[in-house]
Write a structure and sequence with these properties.
54 residues, alpha+beta, two-stranded antiparallel ribbon, 19% helix
Length: 54
């Protein structure tokens, strides 16, 4: 994106509108460990994971 901010993407499309909790991406089981790692190392603590299937 031109604003220099990273956004979550799903199927190659950035989910920046409306953003925040209104732009949740579905994560495959295959990618879940990478998502958890990214959230863990994010210096701004801005990656949130919502688990639906517990």
């Amino acid at each position: 994106m031109e604003d220099g901010i990273a956004y979550v993407a799903e199927r190659g499309e950035p989910l920046n509108d409306p953003g925040g909790s209104g732009s949740l991406a579905e994560v495959t089981e295959r990618d879940m460990s990478d998502v958890v790692l990214a959230a863990d190392v994010c210096p701004g603590e801005c990656i949130f994971i919502e688990l639906d299937n517990l």
